[in-house]
Amino acid sequence: MRLKLQVAYIGTGFHGWQLQDGARTVQGCLEAAFCRLAGRPVRVHGAGRTDAGVHALGQVAHVDVPEAKRELPWQRALNALLPSDVSIVRLMPVSADFHARFDAVQKTYSYALWHESNWLQPQREAYVWQVGALDLDLMEQLARRLVGRRDWAAFQNQGSTVRSTVRTVWDIHRAAGYHSQESLWRFTADGFLKQMVRNLMGCLVMVGKGKLDGDQALEILARGKREYAPATAPARGLCLEQVDYGPAAGE
Q: What is the separation of C-alpha 110 from the centre of its chain, rounded to a whole number of angstroms?
């Protein structure tokens, strides 16, 4: 029986999603819990590999479990075994051909910025990038210009091999944050390159600080070289909010 999971986690205490020898990872914690319940090793397949320190509200994964365990209350049992910084938000059986990664049609990440430079609310420290005052209008103007199908090689960090660096960004917009001193930026695309959202956020912040203008940012993108782009934003402000699937995947 194949199960589809929606997983939420605090990324601070993990070395990312993917299994790593000797490191605490989200995938490793999930597989350990499933192994205890299934009575055998299982592999948990995620929709994407979040980096160390990156959070999730809507990571999606799938796993195959023994048919004999069908009646097990999987969500409750898993959450009883999992550590407090990871939780199964939703769990449902799906068809055997569903794949959490390959069936995804778009993903949405958010990035939280903290705009007060003199103080930072302690409860938000692990979830925001403290950047100080920014020209949000200039950032929104560039965000609108970035939407579309492009080659995003200039905003891809090293460490992964992909067939193509072309992706379609459907939307970038600013929303209200969890505190009056925050802004929350959401990025939706058919897929993202390694640390692409963090690199986009770093570029937008440079524009907001007046250190780069929109035309220069687009010129960097057109040149297609990572070394010309601004520095990568910290991992702690990033959160995988949602992974969407089409009707063929049962949604």
A: 8
Output the pLDDT for position 249.
Answer: 56
- The whole-angstrom separation of Cα 207 and Cα 87 is 37
Residue 181 has pLDDT above 60, yes or no: yes
- DSSP of 162-197: -S--EEEEEEEEEEE-SSTTEEEEEEEES---TTHH
- Residue 199, classified by CB atoms within 10 Å of its CB into exposed (0-12), middle (13-18) or buried (19+), is buried
Q: Confirm whether 51 is a catalytic residue.
A: yes
For residue range 71-91, list pLDDT tens digits in order.
999 999 999 999 999 999 999
Using CA atoms, how far apart are residues 70 and 93, in angstroms rounded to an integer? 9
Examine the pLDDT at 161 and tell me if it is beyond 90. Answer: no
* Rounded distance between C-alpha atoms, residue 168 and residue 23, angstroms: 33
The torsion defined by the Cα of 55, 61, 66 and 68, in degrees rounded to 10, comes to: 80
Catalytic residue among 51, 151, 213, 215: 51
Say how many C-beta atoms besides its own lie within 10 A of residue 248's C-beta.
11
Percentage, residues of the chain above pLDDT 70: 98
Instruction: For 189-242, write each residue's pLDDT tens digit.
Output: 999 999 999 999 999 999 999 999 999 999 999 999 998 889 999 999 999 999
Q: Which domains does the chain have, with CATH numbers?
A: 2-102 (3.30.70.580), 106-244 (3.30.70.660)
